TrEMBL record:
This is Nicotinamidase. InterPro entries: Isochorismatase-like_dom (IPR000868), Isochorismatase-like_sf (IPR036380), Isochorismatase_Nicotinamidase (IPR052347). It comes from the Bacteria. Its EC number is 3.5.1.19.
């Protein structure tokens, strides 16, 4: 800050279903909440994302007879990991963690609402083409540098940070304020992908 850059904090999916006790619980997912709360007011632009699926979403294993969570399926847009039912629109699991300070958010962006396509990234759905509108919002606000925190490091944070770097934003990921699912080496893959895309990983 003070260097001609305009900073935005992007808080990814800090929702009950990704915290201990949730449907797709990430180890230690709730531990990052106090640190995020302390960070928010340092940023002039603040965006929170919310994973927001209709019941019966195509990313749910329960929508694919004979399939279990963490198995893969081929979608029109490529391979897709299957998940337990999670972040169903309007449920408590889809709500933000109750201690997360959401009042300072400028924008709450929901994603994953199309039944036939998942959206890990806050910028593009999993076909890498369908825009969520976030790039336009951030450019309209003059954001040039983005800091990412939230859940999960290896899916929604990772894909968002990679897209942001490819779109030309300066990208920092605060790993101390993220937690990972880490299925099948997915964390190492995501860390390498973020570095290759040009993101700065700290913490
Ligand atoms: C996420 C899997 C499915 C995430 C969302 O927020 O990382 N992961 N939906
Ligand atoms: Zn999801």
């Amino acid at each position: 800050m003070g260097d001609g850059m305009t900073d935005a904090l992007i808080v990814i999916d800090v929702q009950n279903d990704f915290c201990p006790g949730g449907a797709l619980a990430v180890d230690g997912g709730d531990e990052i909440v106090p640190g995020i709360n302390r960070l928010i007011r340092d940023f002039p632009i603040r965006v929170f994302t919310q994973d927001w699926h209709p019941a019966g979403h195509s990313s749910f294993a329960s929508s694919h007879p004979g399939k279990a969570p963490l198995e893969m399926v081929d979608m029109d847009y490529g391979p897709q990991v299957l998940w337990p039912d999670h972040c169903v629109q309007g449920t408590d699991g889809a709500a933000f963690h109750e201690d997360l300070m959401t009042d300072p958010a400028d924008l709450i962006l929901r994603k994953g609402f199309r039944p036939e396509i998942d959206s890990y990234s806050a910028f593009f759905e999993n076909d890498h083409r369908t825009s969520t509108g976030l790039e336009g919002y951030l450019r309209s606000r003059g954001a040039t540098r983005l800091t990412f925190v939230g859940l999960a490091t290896d899916f929604c944070v990772g894909w968002s940070a990679m897209d942001a770097a490819r779109l030309g934003f300066a990208v920092t990921v605060r790993l101390d304020l993220c937690r990972a699912i880490d299925a099948d080496g997915s964390l190492d893959t995501a860390l390498a992908g973020m570095r290759d895309a040009g993101a700065t990983l700290i913490g």
